TrEMBL record:
GO terms for molecular function: endonuclease activity. Residues 499-515 have a biased composition (Low complexity). Transmembrane segments: none annotated. Residues 487-498, 654-670 have a biased composition (Acidic residues). Residues 473-516, 643-671, 769-789, 884-961 are annotated as: Disordered. PROSITE patterns: AP_NUCLEASE_F1_4 (PS51435). Residues 977-1218 form the Endonuclease/exonuclease/phosphatase domain. Belongs to the DNA repair enzymes AP/ExoA family. Keywords: Hydrolase, Magnesium, Metal-binding. This is Endonuclease/exonuclease/phosphatase domain-containing protein. Its cofactor is Mg(2+).
Length: 1250
């Protein structure tokens, strides 16, 4: 309950400091934000005197008559209520009915986004504000802080924050004036309400009345628990023996709950107090439930208080309660738990409760991180890092296996031995994943303990293999070394044969493992390889704006790493690899493009600025930039220029004045220093001559290149011998660097290479080419293969740079052929490369996968994997029958005896299986397009985008953010939602709430299209269904219903129009000749756009209607849309019954897919013709690379929980909507709403700026 305040009377006329209430409780952080917003507003010139201004009357643009004191006193005296216009700031914005309930900031944000979108002019104040006064005459005596507000705080705080943000971002004056009109047109309702408990109950009832009307101010379960506990605490101070029964009676007597709320009974109150005492008293639990409130709102799986009570009862101890709560929410976020596990009866049943699984996982984790991990011969440093990373869900998701659409900071794995990576994968799978959940459930049924679980053969053998791998790394010369060497010799022979047969241009998708292993083993190893690559190497595409590049770099985990005593951070730029001349690239070096170079350097430095304490973007201590000039010495100043900005350059070992700036140079004007030295690279004459048809003249082979070495402090690194070349790091010359021959380089056909380079990096050049009569190494006219880079230094030079500069991190501005990335991977150094475009990024990842696969079979490589080498070699030597399938489980479901692992066979290393990965599991963001390429060797099954998820059984569902940036000035969002409901009558019986939630999530769309309603014209059942639909959505009216008269209970489309939305010029029900009288189209014509709601015919069982579909319906639909498009923009919404791309089909590799309705090649090609006719797929425009975003799941097959679906529902926009100018109607956003998809289809939506 709110504390009584001393109130000063009299109106406020000038801007004065805002004071905080003395008691803030759980709302302190929120109220501080409110306080800051008020200070910001009152400090602005336009609003400094706003508290002294009168509200606007109807004659001045207001909505209601201003306050009349005599009328107010009379009304309050007679009926206790008085309504009038008010000044928004005449309420006490810091007053709350109780400070015991935390504010749900997500609700505030949702209201703010809906009513006050950024840069848009707000209309008149949309909220009614209820204010409390003690007596009729109190209206005349406004307290200094303002009148106490009874209505919920969320709407008024949303307006307050929107205004403060507009001021902070310096919104245009017309927007601020609109806000001023808004706050001066508030609707006030004064009520006689005494202080104390009376105001508490009245505030609660007003909230419930608003919830009943559909406003987004409903208390979450967490808030309700805090409410009851807070009221109990306050009431107990004045009443003794206040039990649950009496407290529940008070709520029943004083509070009328909204119809969708759980009844506050004695058991409810008892559970609330228990949960508050045992669960919410723990900060970790508070944090989890707060996250649920902020991110899930009405779709939280914790819908009932009795579910939380069951969790407490089942978990028992405080530590286990927190672990179980975190585990349940984590499982939902990782998409391997669904709402079914939150059913109260399941939570209570020890035989099926997932809490029991989590309890056993906790015990297993404690054993693995203490006894088992400590028993391994790992360095203490790595033991401690593993123990820290895998101690909680939060740390695992933040530093190893992230949630979908998030990234993990895996920088701690840089330099880690293979065993650390494998142990981490095992721990993530066995504790924080679902791979072993079946084993846990078996153990629970059979009352097993930790040791019983660890005795399962699949678990035991994995742990033994990991132990063997650790021992092998600690003692590489094991007693069975001769056997290993013999095996290595066989491996090298087989590898040599394979290498001779494979061209240098082979990609990762074409390379083994797919070429020799079984499909399942190949997919598993491919996943393992991708994880190895991504632990060290990340690429970021530079194909958009500077801000986009900087943001993408900042989101890269390794970007935050600083150089320190453990290693330097290197920046690398090589002019030879920054683009390519279109004419004779074999003879020419890329032209230096100063503007692009400067932009690139500044973007990278700006992105790094967030990781440092610098005030300007510049090199920090323990950072070194290596700039290769491509033999063009005259570019020195231009190369150094962007690095010198804001610094005091101190030394240059390449020019006179070498003594200048020696140690102890003072900073000039407090600027950071920049030291410049010179490292010279001398290339082998023979290797350069080998690239030419003939060598002529004197001094014609240019062997020297300069590398400018930039650092913030004078480099004084310890001297060390060079790794691959003569001399030591004391010298400034690396000699005899042998350039590889072009036949040894990574090669691509010209068409693919052109996509890799993009237009920006194909450099037009003119003038005479020296030695132009040299034979061309490439033939682009015939699309022949050529080197990706004609002038890339060898791998040895890159490894030398890592060695000489003690590198632990590389930021590569020119990663053209991924060679530096490969060097970083081999040396376990972190690497971030700026790719030209997404295609360049994809091809480099494939290249690394190919090189890694070769190294995993090379016993001399630091990336060698004994287990992989053995697996491949066993098949190559025809001994596949001797090898157990990788990843196969020999567990017996009900055995209690320990399964003995057979001893290793003669001739095999003990650690042969140590490098074997656990079954793959990763997030959507880790999947690349390379996964979907079909292997070209042997008769192998096609691999689709989701093949890698077959082992884990489900496909991660992406969390796709809606577009949140501001609409252009003067534009408003026009949202259209469409949904195939599969029969409206049945839908309304069971899924009314889903419909309401969908409308709320879509921000009350202007138009709602419903497909497959299956109603019949002028029947009682249909009329009743339409009436029920209108009652469910009272803010909407029926715009048009198109019935199927060709067949009863079939097809049908209808459209709803929000009553306050723009009115259409015309609305028509249409049918195409090929599906006459099937009720499949409704067209709504608005001022600037046609909205077409469409339900495309299914091709049917055995594809009976396929020919009619693609040769008639699709052709007629395209023609109709083109006719409409000649007049206005067109938005096509609905179930189009086709999955266009491979990523739109969860099992595209299955042989039956091309023969099934909606996924035939003919239907998919026909859809491409629609796109070619002048339309764009709106969702693909917004999310071009996302995977797992489906709109249909087979209910019969139970595919929804596993996210095994198809994308059949679309928002298609005419090209004119995409290319339109900002001041015109144009396409803005497209989205799916899978959260409400408890049936087969989910709603899809589109937003236009109108």
């Amino acid at each position: 309950m709110a504390p009584k305040k001393k109130q000063k009377t009299g109106p406020t006329t000038t801007a004065e400091p805002v004071t905080m209430p003395t008691e803030t409780g759980l709302c302190q952080a929120h109220l501080l934000k409110v306080h800051d917003a008020l200070q910001c507003i009152f400090a602005h010139e336009m609003f400094k005197d706003i508290r002294g201004e009168s509200p606007l009357s109807p004659t001045n643009g207001g909505r209601e008559s201003p306050l009349d004191l005599s009328q107010a006193a009379a009304a309050l005296k007679s009926v206790g209520v008085y309504r009038c216009a008010g000044n928004f700031f005449h309420q006490d914005l810091l007053w709350l009915a109780t400070h015991k309930i935390p504010i749900n900031n997500s609700q505030v944000q949702q209201i703010k986004d809906y009513w006050f979108p950024p840069n848009a002019e707000p209309s008149l104040c949309p909220f009614t504000i209820n204010l409390a006064v003690e007596k009729p005459t109190s209206v005349a005596d406004r307290p200094e802080a303002g009148f106490a507000r009874l209505s919920p705080a969320e709407p008024v705080h949303a307006l307050l924050f929107a205004l403060a943000e507009a001021i902070q971002r310096k919104a245009p004056e017309h927007v601020l004036r609109a806000f001023k009109s808004c706050v001066l047109t508030a609707s006030f309702v004064f009520e006689i309400c005494g202080v104390g408990e009376a105001r508490y109950w009245r505030a609660q009832n007003i909230r419930e009345e608003m919830v009943e009307k559909g406003l987004a101010v409903q208390m979450t379960l967490r808030q309700r628990i805090f409410d009851i506990a807070g009221f109990h605490e306050a009431k107990s101070k004045t009443e003794t023996n206040l039990g649950s029964k009496k407290l529940a009676g008070l709520y029943s007597a004083h509070l009328k709950l909204a119809s969708n709320q759980e009844r506050i009974s004695e058991s409810f109150v008892d559970s609330a107090l228990t949960i508050h005492r045992r669960l919410l008293s723990q900060p970790a639990c508070q944090q989890v439930l707060e996250w649920c409130d902020q991110n899930w709102l009405s779709v939280s799986p914790w819908k009932s208080i009795y579910a939380l009570q069951a969790l407490i009862d089942r978990a028992g101890t405080p530590e286990m309660i927190a672990w179980a709560l975190q585990g349940m929410v984590d499982g939902v976020r990782m998409s391997f738990l669904d709402a079914g596990v939150f059913v109260i009866s399941k939570l209570k049943d020890s035989r099926v409760s997932y809490i029991e699984v989590l309890k056993m996982k906790k015990k297993v984790l404690q054993h693995l991180l203490t006894e088992w991990l400590m028993s391994l011969e790992l360095p203490t440093e790595w033991k401690n890092k593993i123990k820290s990373t895998f101690s909680s869900f939060e740390k695992v998701r933040g530093h190893f296996a992230p949630y979908p659409q998030q990234t993990a900071d895996t920088a701690w794995l840089l330099g880690a031995p293979t065993s650390v990576s494998e142990i981490s994968t095992f721990l993530e799978g066995v504790i924080y994943g679902q791979e072993y959940d079946g084993r846990y459930k078996d153990g629970i049924k059979n009352r097993h303990e930790v040791q019983d679980f660890l005795a399962y053969s699949s678990v035991k053998s994995t742990m033994e293999n990991l132990g063997a791998l650790v021992r092998q790394e600690a003692r590489p010369q094991a007693p069975n070394a001769p056997q290993v060497e013999e095996k290595a010799e066989e491996t090298e022979t087989a590898e040599a044969e394979a290498s001779e047969a494979a061209p240098a241009s082979v990609t990762a998708a074409e390379a083994a493992p797919a070429s020799t292993l079984t499909d399942s083993d190949a997919a598993m190893w491919r996943q393992h390889m991708r994880k190895v690559v991504q632990q060290h190497v990340r690429f970021v595409s530079d194909h958009r704006s500077n801000a986009d590049l900087e943001e993408a770099l900042k989101e890269t985990p390794s970007m935050s790493l600083r150089g320190d005593q453990t290693g330097m951070a290197l920046f690398h730029f090589d002019l030879k690899k920054y683009g390519e001349p279109t004419t004779r690239p074999d003879l020419r070096i890329a032209t230096f493009r100063e503007a692009l170079y400067t932009r690139l350097v500044k973007s990278v430095l700006n992105a790094r600025k967030g990781a440092t304490d610098g005030h300007t973007p510049h090199l920090q201590v323990s950072e070194v930039a290596l700039l290769f000039d491509g033999g063009k010495k005259g570019l020195r100043n231009k190369l150094l220029a962007p690095w010198r900005e804001g610094t005091a350059s101190k030394a240059d070992g390449g020019e006179e004045g070498e003594e200048e700036g020696e140690e102890g140079g003072e900073e000039e004007d407090d600027k950071p220093t920049l030291f410049v030295d010179l490292l010279q690279i001398g290339y082998s004459e023979q290797s350069l001559a080998a690239r030419k048809k003939r060598v002529r003249g004197t001094c014609t082979i240019k062997q020297m290149e300069q590398c400018h070495v930039l650092s913030a402090k004078k480099l004084t690194l310890p001297s060390r011998d060079r790794k691959h070349f003569d001399g030591s790091t004391t010298g400034d010359l690396i000699t005899n660097v042998k350039m590889p021959s072009w036949t040894e380089e990574w090669q691509l056909d010209w068409k693919t290479k052109k996509e890799l380079l993009g237009k920006k990096h194909q450099i037009l050049v003119g003038g005479k080419t020296e030695f132009k009569d040299e034979e061309k190494p490439n033939d682009r006219a015939s699309n022949a293969k050529e080197p990706v880079s004609f002038h890339s230094p060898p791998l040895e030079l890159y490894e030398e740079l890592l060695h000489c500069f003690y590198a632990k991190m590389v930021f590569d501005l020119t990663p053209l052929d991924a060679r530096f990335a490969y060097a970083a991977l081999r040396n376990r150094v972190g690497y971030v490369g700026v790719a030209y475009n997404p295609e360049h990024e994809r091809l480099m990842e494939e290249r690394l996968m190919f090189l890694l696969e070769k190294d995993m079979r090379d016993s001399t490589s630091p990336l060698f994997s004994a287990a992989y080498s053995e697996a491949v070699l066993a098949l190559q030597l025809g001994r596949a029958e001797d090898r157990e399938p990788i990843g196969a489980s020999t567990d017996l479901e009900d055995t209690h005896e320990e399964t003995k692992t057979p001893p290793p066979k003669k001739g095999k290393a003990k650690a042969a299986d140590a490098g074997r990965p656990t079954p793959p599991k990763r997030t959507i963001s880790a999947v690349s397009e390379g996964d979907s390429q079909k292997p070209k060797r042997g008769k192998k099954a096609k691999e689709g985008p989701y093949t890698c998820y077959k082992e884990q059984g489900s496909i991660p569902e992406p969390e796709l953010p809606r577009r949140s940036d501001a609409l252009p000035a003067g534009k408003k969002a026009f949202t259209v939602l469409s949904w195939n409901v599969g029969g409206l009558r049945a839908f309304l019986k069971s899924r009314k709430k889903d419909l309401e939630n969908a409308v709320q999530l879509a921000s009350s769309p202007a138009v709602i299209g419903i497909m497959e309603h299956k109603l019949q014209d002028s029947t009682a059942d249909s009329e009743a269904a339409l009436k029920e639909l209108s009652e469910t959505l009272p803010d909407y009216e029926l715009a048009c219903v198109n019935y199927s008269t060709a067949k009863k209970g079939y097809s049908g489309v209808l459209a709803l129009l929000r009553k306050e939305a723009p009115r259409p010029v015309a609305v028509t029900a249409e049918d195409l000749p090929s599906a006459a009288q099937e009720g499949r189209i409704v067209v709504l014509e608005f001022e600037t756009v046609y909205v077409v709601v469409c339900y495309v015919p299914n091709s049917g069982d055995q594809l009976k209607r396929l020919t009619q579909r693609i040769e008639e319906w699709d052709v007629q639909l395209r023609q109709r849309l083109q006719d409409l498009g000649k007049k206005k923009h067109v938005l096509l919404m609905g179930d189009l019954n086709v999955a266009h791309q491979d990523k739109d089909i969860w099992n595209v590799e299955a042989p039956h897919v091309p023969k099934s309705a909606g996924t035939t090649n003919e239907e998919r090609e026909s859809f491409s013709k629609l796109i070619d006719s002048g339309f764009k797929d709106g969702f693909s425009l917004r999310h071009p690379e996302v995977l797992g975003a489906f709109t249909y799941w087979s209910v019969r097959a139970g595919n929804r929980p596993k996210n095994r679906g198809l994308r059949l529902d679309y928002a298609m926009v005419s090209d004119s909507l995409v290319s339109a100018q900002e001041h015109q109607t144009h396409f803005w956003d497209a989205f799916h709403l899978p959260a409400v998809a408890t049936g087969d289809h989910c709603p899809v939506g589109a937003v236009l700026a109108v």
